Amino acid sequence: MRNPKPQEWVTKDFSQNYIADYKAFNFVDGEGVRNSLYVSGCLFACEGCFNQAVQNFRYGKPFTKELEDRIIEDLSHDYVQGLTLLGGEPFLNTDVCLNVVDRVHQEFGQKKDIWSWSGYTFEELLLESDDKLELLNKIDILVDGRFELSKRNLNLQFRGSSNQRIIDVKKSLSCGQAVIWDKCHDAEQGYEQIKKDKLI
Questions:
Q1: Exposure of 119 by Cβ count < 10 A (0-12 exposed, 13-18 middle, 19+ buried)?
Q2: Is the backbone peptide bond immediately before 60 cis, with ω within 30 degrees of 0?
Q3: Cβ density class 170-189: b for 16+ within 10 Å, e for less
Q4: Which of 8, 14, 141, 180 is deepest in the core (most CB within 10 A)?
Q5: Per-residue pLDDT averaged across 150-155, rounded?
Q6: How far, in Å, CA of 27 to CA of 30, rounded?
Q7: Is it the case that residue 57 has pLDDT exceeding 80?
Q8: What is the mean pLDDT of residues 188-200?
Q9: Model-level pTM?
Q10: What is the rounded distance in angstroms from the CA atom of residue 155 to the CA atom of residue 63?
């Protein structure tokens, strides 16, 4: 796992504007029905990363206007709550992410919420470059922090290790410190995974 100094990693030096995947109408990448855009490229290299292939900034295919239009069309359904940005690292792909976020706000105002996962912590992003700060200011929920294998916990809501947080960005920016999302709730107990040989 790598720990950058403030403004050490600059989007223009790394991003190729590639996306790894786009998944419409899913229930796992945040609250409600969501459309999820997986951008390509990440420098954190967390041990145990579940999506190592996407660490490559040229994995997948270039982001296109056609895909942007499809995302907007998919978001237009009333039952879709919002857009989720994942990766890879969205805050190292700010050109793509800001284009999409700005288009969402243009088309829907505040009717659709925007979530983002990031290896950066909220506090680190406050010390980052203008493009990262702009993206932070335009999202609603941030799931922050590197994945730490030693802190892995399957009972956590929407995150993989106990150091990670679900942050209400608007409230956090207004008071200058991280405010945990008020709907955050983790499972109180885990359940043993059923193995195939136990099935009848």
A1: buried
A2: no
A3: eebbeeeebbebeeeeeeee
A4: 141
A5: 82
A6: 7
A7: yes
A8: 43
A9: 0.89
A10: 34
